[in-house]
Design brief:
Strand order of the largest sheet: 2-1-3-5-4
Distance between the termini: 75 Å
Number of strands: 5
Helix content: 55-70%
Oligomer: single chain
Number of helices: 24
Largest sheet: 5 strands, mixed
Protein backbone atom coordinates (compact mmCIF):
# COMPACT_ATOMS: atom_id res chain seq x y z
CA UNK A 1 0.00 0.00 0.00
CA UNK A 2 2.79 2.42 0.91
CA UNK A 3 4.53 1.63 -2.37
CA UNK A 4 1.36 2.42 -4.33
CA UNK A 5 0.93 5.72 -2.48
CA UNK A 6 4.57 6.60 -3.20
CA UNK A 7 4.13 5.85 -6.89
CA UNK A 8 1.05 8.05 -7.06
CA UNK A 9 2.89 10.87 -5.32
CA UNK A 10 5.77 10.54 -7.75
CA UNK A 11 3.44 10.63 -10.74
CA UNK A 12 1.63 13.69 -9.36
CA UNK A 13 4.99 15.37 -8.78
CA UNK A 14 6.20 14.71 -12.33
CA UNK A 15 2.91 15.94 -13.80
CA UNK A 16 3.19 19.09 -11.69
CA UNK A 17 6.72 19.74 -12.94
CA UNK A 18 5.79 19.17 -16.58
CA UNK A 19 2.69 21.36 -16.30
CA UNK A 20 4.60 24.11 -14.51
CA UNK A 21 7.25 24.44 -17.20
CA UNK A 22 4.74 24.09 -20.03
CA UNK A 23 2.80 27.00 -18.54
CA UNK A 24 6.03 29.02 -18.44
CA UNK A 25 6.55 28.36 -22.15
CA UNK A 26 3.02 29.55 -22.87
CA UNK A 27 3.47 32.66 -20.72
CA UNK A 28 6.81 33.55 -22.30
CA UNK A 29 5.37 33.30 -25.81
CA UNK A 30 2.30 35.36 -24.88
CA UNK A 31 3.93 38.06 -22.77
CA UNK A 32 6.31 39.64 -25.31
CA UNK A 33 7.75 39.05 -28.79
CA UNK A 34 11.00 40.73 -27.69
CA UNK A 35 13.99 38.85 -26.34
CA UNK A 36 15.75 39.31 -23.02
CA UNK A 37 19.53 39.76 -22.92
CA UNK A 38 20.67 36.14 -22.85
CA UNK A 39 17.89 35.13 -25.22
CA UNK A 40 18.97 37.80 -27.70
CA UNK A 41 22.56 36.65 -27.37
CA UNK A 42 21.52 33.17 -28.45
CA UNK A 43 19.64 34.61 -31.41
CA UNK A 44 22.83 36.45 -32.36
CA UNK A 45 25.25 33.57 -31.87
CA UNK A 46 23.13 30.82 -33.44
CA UNK A 47 23.33 32.45 -36.88
CA UNK A 48 26.33 30.21 -37.53
CA UNK A 49 27.48 26.76 -36.48
CA UNK A 50 30.96 27.43 -35.07
CA UNK A 51 33.31 25.58 -32.70
CA UNK A 52 33.21 28.58 -30.36
CA UNK A 53 31.59 31.97 -30.07
CA UNK A 54 32.26 34.03 -26.95
CA UNK A 55 33.80 33.61 -23.52
CA UNK A 56 31.16 30.93 -22.84
CA UNK A 57 31.27 27.36 -24.25
CA UNK A 58 29.10 26.71 -27.32
CA UNK A 59 26.81 23.76 -26.50
CA UNK A 60 23.80 25.86 -25.50
CA UNK A 61 24.05 27.74 -28.79
CA UNK A 62 24.37 24.53 -30.80
CA UNK A 63 21.19 23.12 -29.25
CA UNK A 64 19.40 26.44 -29.69
CA UNK A 65 20.37 26.50 -33.36
CA UNK A 66 18.90 23.01 -33.77
CA UNK A 67 15.62 24.09 -32.19
CA UNK A 68 15.50 27.16 -34.43
CA UNK A 69 15.87 24.84 -37.41
CA UNK A 70 12.99 22.68 -36.15
CA UNK A 71 10.57 25.34 -34.91
CA UNK A 72 11.73 28.55 -36.55
CA UNK A 73 13.51 31.51 -35.03
CA UNK A 74 11.39 32.94 -32.28
CA UNK A 75 10.44 33.08 -28.63
CA UNK A 76 8.90 29.60 -28.60
CA UNK A 77 12.14 27.79 -29.52
CA UNK A 78 14.06 29.85 -26.97
CA UNK A 79 11.60 29.20 -24.15
CA UNK A 80 11.31 25.53 -25.06
CA UNK A 81 15.03 24.98 -24.58
CA UNK A 82 15.20 26.92 -21.32
CA UNK A 83 12.25 25.16 -19.71
CA UNK A 84 13.29 21.73 -20.94
CA UNK A 85 16.67 22.18 -19.25
CA UNK A 86 15.01 23.35 -16.04
CA UNK A 87 12.57 20.43 -16.06
CA UNK A 88 15.47 18.00 -16.51
CA UNK A 89 17.41 19.67 -13.69
CA UNK A 90 14.55 19.19 -11.23
CA UNK A 91 14.13 15.65 -12.52
CA UNK A 92 17.78 14.71 -12.03
CA UNK A 93 17.79 16.17 -8.52
CA UNK A 94 14.74 14.01 -7.78
CA UNK A 95 16.38 10.89 -9.27
CA UNK A 96 19.61 11.55 -7.36
CA UNK A 97 17.75 12.04 -4.09
CA UNK A 98 15.66 8.91 -4.63
CA UNK A 99 18.79 6.85 -5.29
CA UNK A 100 20.66 8.33 -2.34
CA UNK A 101 17.83 8.35 0.20
CA UNK A 102 15.62 5.48 -0.99
CA UNK A 103 12.60 7.55 -0.04
CA UNK A 104 10.12 8.98 -2.57
CA UNK A 105 8.82 11.71 -0.28
CA UNK A 106 12.27 13.04 0.57
CA UNK A 107 13.24 12.94 -3.11
CA UNK A 108 10.19 15.02 -4.04
CA UNK A 109 10.97 17.54 -1.31
CA UNK A 110 14.63 17.78 -2.37
CA UNK A 111 13.63 18.55 -5.96
CA UNK A 112 10.91 21.06 -5.10
CA UNK A 113 13.34 22.80 -2.76
CA UNK A 114 14.96 24.30 -5.86
CA UNK A 115 11.93 26.57 -6.14
CA UNK A 116 13.03 28.23 -2.89
CA UNK A 117 16.52 29.03 -4.24
CA UNK A 118 16.02 32.34 -6.07
CA UNK A 119 18.91 31.84 -8.47
CA UNK A 120 17.35 28.59 -9.69
CA UNK A 121 13.64 29.13 -9.18
CA UNK A 122 13.55 32.73 -10.43
CA UNK A 123 16.74 33.92 -12.13
CA UNK A 124 17.12 30.80 -14.26
CA UNK A 125 13.56 31.28 -15.47
CA UNK A 126 13.97 35.00 -15.99
CA UNK A 127 17.09 35.09 -18.17
CA UNK A 128 19.90 32.54 -17.98
CA UNK A 129 21.36 30.17 -20.54
CA UNK A 130 24.79 28.63 -19.98
CA UNK A 131 24.40 28.49 -16.20
CA UNK A 132 21.12 26.60 -16.59
CA UNK A 133 22.85 24.01 -18.75
CA UNK A 134 25.76 23.76 -16.30
CA UNK A 135 23.43 23.04 -13.36
CA UNK A 136 21.72 20.32 -15.38
CA UNK A 137 25.10 18.80 -16.29
CA UNK A 138 26.19 18.86 -12.64
CA UNK A 139 22.95 17.22 -11.46
CA UNK A 140 23.23 14.56 -14.18
CA UNK A 141 26.87 13.92 -13.28
CA UNK A 142 26.01 13.34 -9.64
CA UNK A 143 23.19 10.99 -10.59
CA UNK A 144 25.43 9.00 -12.91
CA UNK A 145 28.18 8.73 -10.29
CA UNK A 146 25.67 7.20 -7.86
CA UNK A 147 24.66 4.74 -10.59
CA UNK A 148 28.31 3.84 -11.12
CA UNK A 149 28.78 3.20 -7.41
CA UNK A 150 26.14 0.48 -7.80
CA UNK A 151 27.18 -0.95 -11.15
CA UNK A 152 30.51 -0.29 -12.83
CA UNK A 153 30.00 -1.47 -16.37
CA UNK A 154 31.17 -0.06 -19.70
CA UNK A 155 27.82 1.47 -20.59
CA UNK A 156 27.63 3.50 -17.38
CA UNK A 157 31.17 4.79 -17.86
CA UNK A 158 30.43 5.85 -21.43
CA UNK A 159 27.32 7.71 -20.20
CA UNK A 160 29.52 9.45 -17.62
CA UNK A 161 31.93 10.46 -20.40
CA UNK A 162 29.10 12.00 -22.43
CA UNK A 163 27.78 13.89 -19.40
CA UNK A 164 31.26 15.20 -18.59
CA UNK A 165 31.57 16.41 -22.19
CA UNK A 166 28.23 18.19 -21.87
CA UNK A 167 29.48 19.86 -18.70
CA UNK A 168 32.73 20.99 -20.32
CA UNK A 169 30.71 22.49 -23.18
CA UNK A 170 28.26 24.21 -20.82
CA UNK A 171 30.16 26.57 -18.51
CA UNK A 172 33.60 26.81 -16.95
CA UNK A 173 32.52 26.49 -13.31
CA UNK A 174 31.13 23.03 -14.05
CA UNK A 175 34.77 21.88 -14.11
CA UNK A 176 35.14 22.93 -10.47
CA UNK A 177 32.11 20.82 -9.53
CA UNK A 178 33.41 17.78 -11.45
CA UNK A 179 36.92 18.11 -9.99
CA UNK A 180 35.64 18.38 -6.41
CA UNK A 181 33.28 15.46 -6.98
CA UNK A 182 36.18 13.26 -8.12
CA UNK A 183 38.31 14.39 -5.16
CA UNK A 184 35.46 13.54 -2.81
CA UNK A 185 35.10 10.10 -4.40
CA UNK A 186 38.80 9.50 -3.82
CA UNK A 187 38.28 9.79 -0.06
CA UNK A 188 36.11 6.63 -0.04
CA UNK A 189 37.30 3.12 -0.83
CA UNK A 190 34.27 2.54 -3.08
CA UNK A 191 34.96 5.84 -4.81
CA UNK A 192 38.58 4.94 -5.51
CA UNK A 193 37.40 1.67 -7.01
CA UNK A 194 35.14 3.68 -9.32
CA UNK A 195 37.84 6.18 -10.26
CA UNK A 196 40.56 3.63 -10.99
CA UNK A 197 38.37 1.19 -12.87
CA UNK A 198 39.76 0.30 -16.30
CA UNK A 199 36.74 1.84 -18.03
CA UNK A 200 37.35 5.28 -16.48
CA UNK A 201 40.06 5.97 -19.03
CA UNK A 202 37.51 5.47 -21.81
CA UNK A 203 35.07 7.84 -20.08
CA UNK A 204 37.74 10.54 -19.76
CA UNK A 205 38.83 10.09 -23.37
CA UNK A 206 35.24 10.49 -24.49
CA UNK A 207 34.85 13.54 -22.24
CA UNK A 208 37.80 15.19 -24.00
CA UNK A 209 37.13 13.91 -27.51
CA UNK A 210 33.58 15.25 -27.85
CA UNK A 211 34.51 18.88 -27.01
CA UNK A 212 37.90 18.70 -28.79
CA UNK A 213 36.82 21.15 -31.50
CA UNK A 214 35.92 23.73 -28.89
CA UNK A 215 39.09 23.09 -26.89
CA UNK A 216 41.17 23.71 -30.00
CA UNK A 217 39.15 26.87 -30.73
CA UNK A 218 40.00 28.09 -27.22
CA UNK A 219 43.71 27.89 -27.95
CA UNK A 220 43.24 29.96 -31.13
CA UNK A 221 40.97 32.58 -29.51
CA UNK A 222 42.38 33.15 -26.06
CA UNK A 223 41.56 36.86 -26.20
CA UNK A 224 37.85 36.06 -26.55
CA UNK A 225 37.91 33.24 -23.99
CA UNK A 226 39.41 35.51 -21.33
CA UNK A 227 37.50 38.64 -22.33
CA UNK A 228 35.19 38.31 -19.31
CA UNK A 229 37.91 38.33 -16.65
CA UNK A 230 36.97 41.93 -15.89
CA UNK A 231 33.88 40.53 -14.17
CA UNK A 232 36.08 39.35 -11.30
CA UNK A 233 36.52 42.23 -8.88
CA UNK A 234 39.98 42.10 -7.31
CA UNK A 235 41.91 44.15 -4.79
CA UNK A 236 45.54 43.64 -3.95
CA UNK A 237 45.35 44.43 -0.24
CA UNK A 238 41.99 43.49 1.23
CA UNK A 239 41.11 40.36 -0.77
CA UNK A 240 41.96 38.02 2.11
CA UNK A 241 38.92 39.09 4.12
CA UNK A 242 36.64 40.74 1.53
CA UNK A 243 36.56 37.63 -0.66
CA UNK A 244 35.62 35.14 2.09
CA UNK A 245 33.12 37.61 3.56
CA UNK A 246 31.48 38.03 0.16
CA UNK A 247 31.39 34.25 -0.30
CA UNK A 248 29.68 33.68 3.05
CA UNK A 249 27.20 36.50 2.50
CA UNK A 250 26.32 35.42 -1.05
CA UNK A 251 25.93 31.82 0.09
CA UNK A 252 23.47 33.03 2.72
CA UNK A 253 21.53 34.99 0.09
CA UNK A 254 21.69 32.08 -2.34
CA UNK A 255 20.03 29.78 0.18
CA UNK A 256 17.39 32.27 1.34
CA UNK A 257 14.49 31.57 1.86
CA UNK A 258 15.21 27.83 1.54
CA UNK A 259 17.08 27.57 4.84
CA UNK A 260 14.28 29.35 6.72
CA UNK A 261 11.56 27.06 5.35
CA UNK A 262 13.60 23.95 6.14
CA UNK A 263 14.34 25.26 9.64
CA UNK A 264 10.67 25.84 10.39
CA UNK A 265 9.32 22.60 8.92
CA UNK A 266 12.15 20.14 9.57
CA UNK A 267 14.31 21.42 12.46
CA UNK A 268 15.71 17.93 13.00
CA UNK A 269 17.54 18.18 9.69
CA UNK A 270 19.73 21.01 10.95
CA UNK A 271 20.98 19.09 13.95
CA UNK A 272 20.61 15.57 12.67
CA UNK A 273 23.57 13.29 11.99
CA UNK A 274 24.04 10.23 9.87
CA UNK A 275 23.50 7.00 11.77
CA UNK A 276 26.44 4.58 12.07
CA UNK A 277 26.74 2.30 9.07
CA UNK A 278 24.89 4.69 6.77
CA UNK A 279 25.17 3.87 3.06
CA UNK A 280 27.77 5.61 0.92
CA UNK A 281 25.58 8.07 -1.09
CA UNK A 282 24.45 10.20 1.90
CA UNK A 283 28.00 10.31 3.25
CA UNK A 284 29.30 11.23 -0.20
CA UNK A 285 26.80 14.08 -0.54
CA UNK A 286 27.64 15.58 2.83
CA UNK A 287 31.39 15.44 2.24
CA UNK A 288 30.95 16.81 -1.28
CA UNK A 289 29.18 19.91 0.03
CA UNK A 290 31.97 20.52 2.54
CA UNK A 291 34.68 20.12 -0.11
CA UNK A 292 32.79 22.37 -2.55
CA UNK A 293 32.72 25.20 -0.04
CA UNK A 294 36.41 24.73 0.73
CA UNK A 295 37.17 24.76 -2.99
CA UNK A 296 35.18 27.97 -3.44
CA UNK A 297 37.12 29.56 -0.60
CA UNK A 298 40.45 28.50 -2.15
CA UNK A 299 39.44 29.86 -5.57
CA UNK A 300 38.34 33.18 -4.06
CA UNK A 301 41.60 33.57 -2.15
CA UNK A 302 43.86 32.33 -4.94
CA UNK A 303 42.17 34.59 -7.47
CA UNK A 304 42.07 37.53 -5.06
CA UNK A 305 38.37 37.84 -5.81
CA UNK A 306 36.63 40.38 -3.58
CA UNK A 307 33.07 40.10 -4.90
CA UNK A 308 31.26 36.79 -5.45
CA UNK A 309 28.20 36.69 -7.70
CA UNK A 310 25.22 34.53 -6.77
CA UNK A 311 25.06 32.78 -10.14
CA UNK A 312 28.61 31.46 -9.74
CA UNK A 313 27.32 29.30 -6.90
CA UNK A 314 24.46 27.78 -8.85
CA UNK A 315 26.19 24.73 -10.43
CA UNK A 316 27.82 23.98 -7.06
CA UNK A 317 25.36 24.61 -4.23
CA UNK A 318 22.26 23.15 -5.88
CA UNK A 319 23.10 20.03 -3.82
CA UNK A 320 22.25 21.74 -0.51
CA UNK A 321 18.66 20.35 -0.44
CA UNK A 322 20.03 16.88 -1.17
CA UNK A 323 22.44 17.14 1.73
CA UNK A 324 19.81 18.50 4.10
CA UNK A 325 17.41 15.64 3.52
CA UNK A 326 20.13 13.05 4.13
CA UNK A 327 20.06 14.30 7.71
CA UNK A 328 16.40 13.47 8.22
CA UNK A 329 15.36 10.06 9.43
CA UNK A 330 13.88 7.92 6.67
CA UNK A 331 10.48 7.95 8.40
CA UNK A 332 10.43 11.74 8.11
CA UNK A 333 8.68 13.83 7.06
CA UNK A 334 5.28 13.33 8.59
CA UNK A 335 2.30 13.51 6.26
CA UNK A 336 1.14 16.98 7.52
CA UNK A 337 4.61 18.51 7.09
CA UNK A 338 5.03 16.89 3.70
CA UNK A 339 1.68 18.32 2.59
CA UNK A 340 2.57 21.75 3.99
CA UNK A 341 5.89 21.80 2.14
CA UNK A 342 4.14 20.82 -1.11
CA UNK A 343 1.66 23.66 -0.55
CA UNK A 344 4.47 26.16 0.02
CA UNK A 345 6.21 24.93 -3.13
CA UNK A 346 2.97 25.48 -5.03
CA UNK A 347 2.74 29.01 -3.66
CA UNK A 348 6.36 29.65 -4.67
CA UNK A 349 5.69 28.32 -8.19
CA UNK A 350 2.61 30.54 -8.51
CA UNK A 351 4.55 33.52 -7.17
CA UNK A 352 7.33 33.02 -9.72
CA UNK A 353 4.78 32.73 -12.50
CA UNK A 354 2.95 35.89 -11.49
CA UNK A 355 6.18 37.83 -10.92
CA UNK A 356 7.36 36.89 -14.41
CA UNK A 357 4.17 38.33 -15.89
CA UNK A 358 3.84 41.40 -13.66
CA UNK A 359 7.40 42.62 -14.21
CA UNK A 360 6.41 43.12 -17.86
CA UNK A 361 2.73 44.08 -17.83
CA UNK A 362 2.96 46.23 -14.67
CA UNK A 363 6.30 47.87 -15.49
CA UNK A 364 4.69 51.29 -15.92
CA UNK A 365 3.39 51.14 -12.35
CA UNK A 366 6.61 49.82 -10.83
CA UNK A 367 8.67 52.37 -12.77
CA UNK A 368 11.08 49.68 -13.95
CA UNK A 369 10.94 48.52 -17.55
CA UNK A 370 12.72 45.29 -18.44
CA UNK A 371 14.06 44.22 -21.83
CA UNK A 372 10.84 42.38 -22.62
CA UNK A 373 9.18 45.81 -22.70
CA UNK A 374 11.28 46.94 -25.68
CA UNK A 375 8.94 47.63 -28.65
CA UNK A 376 11.01 45.88 -31.28
CA UNK A 377 8.07 45.17 -33.58
CA UNK A 378 7.47 48.89 -34.12
CA UNK A 379 11.20 49.54 -34.29
CA UNK A 380 11.41 47.01 -37.12
CA UNK A 381 8.54 48.75 -38.90
CA UNK A 382 10.41 52.06 -38.68
CA UNK A 383 13.57 50.51 -40.11
CA UNK A 384 11.58 49.21 -43.06
CA UNK A 385 10.03 52.65 -43.54
CA UNK A 386 13.52 54.14 -43.64
CA UNK A 387 14.38 51.77 -46.48
CA UNK A 388 16.09 48.85 -44.80
CA UNK A 389 14.95 45.52 -46.20
CA UNK A 390 18.02 43.31 -46.09
CA UNK A 391 21.63 44.01 -45.27
CA UNK A 392 23.96 43.73 -42.31
CA UNK A 393 22.78 44.70 -38.82
CA UNK A 394 25.42 46.11 -36.50
CA UNK A 395 25.21 47.12 -32.85
CA UNK A 396 27.50 47.54 -29.87
CA UNK A 397 24.95 45.64 -27.74
CA UNK A 398 24.32 41.89 -28.08
CA UNK A 399 20.79 42.46 -26.85
CA UNK A 400 19.98 44.89 -29.65
CA UNK A 401 21.78 42.82 -32.28
CA UNK A 402 19.93 39.62 -31.40
CA UNK A 403 16.53 41.28 -31.42
CA UNK A 404 17.25 42.99 -34.72
CA UNK A 405 18.17 39.67 -36.28
CA UNK A 406 14.87 38.23 -35.06
CA UNK A 407 13.13 41.07 -36.93
CA UNK A 408 15.24 40.59 -40.07
CA UNK A 409 16.25 36.91 -40.11
CA UNK A 410 17.71 37.18 -43.63
CA UNK A 411 20.12 39.89 -42.43
CA UNK A 412 23.17 38.82 -40.40
CA UNK A 413 23.71 40.72 -37.15
CA UNK A 414 27.19 41.59 -35.89
CA UNK A 415 28.78 43.05 -32.78
CA UNK A 416 32.36 44.27 -32.36
CA UNK A 417 34.91 42.07 -30.67
CA UNK A 418 33.98 38.56 -31.79
CA UNK A 419 35.02 38.56 -35.46
CA UNK A 420 31.64 37.33 -36.69
CA UNK A 421 32.09 39.46 -39.80
CA UNK A 422 34.36 36.66 -41.05
CA UNK A 423 31.26 34.51 -41.47
CA UNK A 424 29.74 36.82 -44.08
CA UNK A 425 29.87 35.56 -47.68
CA UNK A 426 31.99 38.01 -49.67
CA UNK A 427 32.54 38.81 -53.30
CA UNK A 428 35.98 39.10 -54.89
CA UNK A 429 36.26 42.68 -53.73
CA UNK A 430 35.93 41.68 -50.09
CA UNK A 431 32.62 43.51 -49.74
CA UNK A 432 29.40 41.75 -48.74
CA UNK A 433 27.57 40.00 -51.55
CA UNK A 434 25.00 41.95 -53.61
CA UNK A 435 21.93 41.51 -51.40
CA UNK A 436 23.71 42.82 -48.33
CA UNK A 437 25.29 46.13 -49.33
CA UNK A 438 23.50 48.19 -46.72
CA UNK A 439 24.51 48.48 -43.09
CA UNK A 440 22.01 49.30 -40.38
CA UNK A 441 23.90 50.48 -37.30
CA UNK A 442 21.81 50.70 -34.13
CA UNK A 443 22.70 51.86 -30.64
CA UNK A 444 21.06 53.40 -27.57
CA UNK A 445 20.44 57.09 -28.17
CA UNK A 446 20.75 57.76 -24.45
CA UNK A 447 24.34 56.56 -24.76
CA UNK A 448 25.15 58.95 -27.60
CA UNK A 449 23.33 60.84 -30.32
CA UNK A 450 26.37 60.45 -32.56
CA UNK A 451 27.99 57.23 -33.73
CA UNK A 452 29.92 55.74 -30.77
CA UNK A 453 33.68 55.44 -31.20
CA UNK A 454 33.59 51.65 -30.82
CA UNK A 455 31.17 51.29 -33.71
CA UNK A 456 33.06 53.85 -35.81
CA UNK A 457 36.28 51.88 -35.36
CA UNK A 458 34.50 48.61 -36.10
CA UNK A 459 33.01 49.92 -39.34
CA UNK A 460 36.42 51.07 -40.47
CA UNK A 461 38.14 47.79 -39.62
CA UNK A 462 35.47 45.35 -40.79
CA UNK A 463 33.95 47.17 -43.78
CA UNK A 464 36.49 49.87 -44.65
CA UNK A 465 33.78 52.49 -44.00
CA UNK A 466 35.48 55.68 -42.89
CA UNK A 467 33.74 58.55 -44.65
CA UNK A 468 30.33 58.63 -42.98
CA UNK A 469 28.27 61.59 -44.05
CA UNK A 470 24.78 60.35 -43.17
CA UNK A 471 23.14 61.61 -40.00
CA UNK A 472 21.72 59.18 -37.44
CA UNK A 473 17.97 59.00 -37.01
CA UNK A 474 16.43 58.65 -33.56
CA UNK A 475 13.56 56.17 -33.31
CA UNK A 476 11.31 56.93 -30.35
CA UNK A 477 8.67 54.43 -29.33
CA UNK A 478 6.60 53.77 -26.26
CA UNK A 479 7.58 50.71 -24.25
CA UNK A 480 5.28 47.71 -24.36
CA UNK A 481 2.65 48.01 -21.59
CA UNK A 482 3.72 51.62 -20.95
CA UNK A 483 1.61 54.71 -20.46
CA UNK A 484 3.89 57.51 -21.68
CA UNK A 485 7.40 56.14 -21.12
CA UNK A 486 9.49 55.89 -24.29
CA UNK A 487 12.65 54.28 -25.59
CA UNK A 488 15.09 56.04 -27.95
CA UNK A 489 17.34 54.14 -30.34
CA UNK A 490 19.72 55.77 -32.79
CA UNK A 491 19.92 54.31 -36.30
CA UNK A 492 22.41 54.96 -39.07
CA UNK A 493 21.87 53.44 -42.53
CA UNK A 494 25.06 53.22 -44.55
CA UNK A 495 25.09 52.08 -48.19
CA UNK A 496 28.13 50.16 -49.39
CA UNK A 497 29.40 50.51 -52.98
CA UNK A 498 28.88 47.70 -55.48
CA UNK A 499 31.89 45.46 -56.09
CA UNK A 500 33.88 46.70 -59.11
CA UNK A 501 33.88 43.19 -60.63
CA UNK A 502 30.13 43.33 -61.29
CA UNK A 503 29.03 44.37 -64.76
CA UNK A 504 25.66 45.81 -63.79
CA UNK A 505 25.38 48.40 -61.05
CA UNK A 506 22.97 47.56 -58.28
CA UNK A 507 19.84 49.65 -57.96
CA UNK A 508 20.34 51.96 -54.96
CA UNK A 509 18.28 51.18 -51.88
CA UNK A 510 15.63 53.72 -50.99
CA UNK A 511 15.62 55.76 -47.83
CA UNK A 512 19.35 55.88 -47.07
CA UNK A 513 19.88 57.47 -43.72
Amino acid sequence: MKRLIAQRQTLAFLLFLAGYFLLHIALRVAISPSLDYDEAEQMLLSQWLLPGYTEQPPLYTWVQRLLFALFGKGVFAISLLKNTLLFLTYLFVFLTARRALNNERLAILASLSLLFIPQIGWESQRDMTHTTLAVLAAAATLWQVLRLLERQNLGNYLILGVILAVGILSKANYLLFAAVLFITLATFAEGRQLLFHRHMALALCLALLLPSGYLWWMTENRDIVFSATHKFKREALDFWYKGPASLVFKTFLFLTPLWLILLLLFPRGLRGTLPPGEALPPRLLQRLLLFLFIALLVVVLAGKVTYVKDRWLQPLLFIVPLVFFTRLHRDQPTAPRFTLFIGLAGVAALGIYLAFALRVVAASYSGSFCRLNYPFATIGADLRALGFREGVLISDDRFLAGNLHLLFPASPALVPGYRFERQLPVANSGLPTPGRRQLAVVWHAAQSLTLPDELRSYLAAAFAVTDITAEPRVLRHRYLFARDETLDLAVLLIPLPSPPTEQKPQRPLAGKG
